[in-house]
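Structural prep section.
Before we set up the soaks we want a predicted structure of the protein with adenosine-5'-diphosphate in place, mainly to decide which crystallisation condition to try first. Input record follows.
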Amino acid sequence: MFSKVLVANRGEIALRVIRACQELGIKTVAVYSAADARAPHVREADEAVLVGPPPSSQSYLVGEHLIEVALRTGVQAIHPGYGFLSERAWFARAVREAGLVFIGPPAEAIDAMGSKTSARQLVMAAGVPVVPGTTDSVRDADEAIAIAQSFGFPVLLKAAAGGGGKGMRIVRAASDLADALASAKREAQNAFGDDAVYIEKYIEGPRHVEIQVLADMHGNVLHLGERECSVQRRHQKMIEEAPSVAVSPELRARMGATAVAAARAAGYVNAGTCEFLLDTNGQYYFLEMNTRIQVEHPVTELVMGLDLVQWQIRVAAGEALPFAQKDFTPRGWAMECRITSEDPSNGFLPSTGRIEYLHLPTGPGVRWDGGIEAGSDIGLHYDPMLAKLIVHAPTRALAIARMRRALRELTIDGIETSRGFHLRVMDHPEFQQGAIHIQWLEQNLPALTAPVSDPSAIRLAAVAAALVAHTERQAGHVASGAHAAAMGEASLPSATVRGEPTGPTWREVARREALRSS
Ligand code: ADP
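Run finished without errors. Recording the tokens verbatim:
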């Protein structure tokens, strides 16, 4: 086993990997940009090395430099997390060539699955069903129109190098194709430095169901069941759960076998995910394979009872998986909400500022995978995902009730977050019935993001504002006054200990009450 690992990432996933290492008795080296000097992952690691200024292109993405740091600090392996360098085959190769272990799949497997078109060709040859469409990029609009007409509109233009929903365009009529193709190519060129775009049939109302795969170096390839990630905005996941209401044990076994076949075709080792669309007839189609740990991996960990990140590390160190496929049956229900620094009532505009107060939910079945704390400055340099709130309960209905309870306990003060939006999703009857698909969220967005308009909530907010003003006037009498005033709000006097505000503030109480009555 490794004695020291470098974590080439930041935020919640860096902390997640550090925790996995700590439990395995492995020392860690964190890397950080100047913007993250006070970040929790820097403090939690055994060592930390400043690798550059805030822009990730000059810090977290400079692979050669990270490898130098790894060699200098004497680690044996690098964990890339997700995003950043995790799916760059050149980086995996360079790590290997430096005599270090890349905690992830072989560079060749990343290459094989890296382009959506080559992945489609590879898995089709292994008998995996893919969404109808081309396996090569299209040359021009005329060719694209001819292809689209062969399987009918609507179609989806997709960047071959795509990721994060970029370079995608839905086209409903031949007359729109030329413009859409030009703009998809432009976006793909800007985002990925590659303007190759291909065409898929656009499937209406499917679910996004993905299969977790885990493979070792000894030929064992297992699947760990599905995650449903249909609650999406702009092709980006917001809520994930395991298992899926739409997947029976029989379908799980079939989709699992398909994912294992795809992984084997790519010579896959380590943790990976095959993403599928599942249509209303129970047909499923391979979308792509993500060759890394995914944001939503905790829901699988909770229902399957294992630590995926620790297994990534153990497999990379050469251990054989001690499991058989029959060991993996989901137990209970797990759900994850991505807590982002975005303002849902304002078009999900990124919100920046300092987290002034943070109260985390606890209690039965609640897990918080976060990378923030009170005092954290949230800027625009990195992804707006601050943390993941994850719950586990015996049934889906109880998981929703538990998520609701945990979201209500959560207080993040100082910036706007997606918390209230998630509460509304939990309360939505269609979500509660599991009647969701990948377009569901966008279709229901107005109701799920409207500002609170309830008259009693407005009254309450007014009362709270008056209380804040009053407490601020009284601030001279309260030890925390100066501090509270400096934070732009007053703390409840009863919750003040040794001059430090520790309890909820008037603003939080007002916000909670507003949510309760909304
Ligand atoms: P990316 O790599 O950019 O995330 P994916 O291929 O994984 O792209 O697709 C992202 C999301 O886009 C899917 O989860 C799904 O919601 C939607 N999508 C992708 N392909 C199709 C399709 N053929 N029809 C309908 N929706 C699709």
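Observations: The domain at 207-449 is CATH 3.30.470.20 (D-amino Acid Aminotransferase; Chain A, domain 1).
Flagged for discussion at group meeting.
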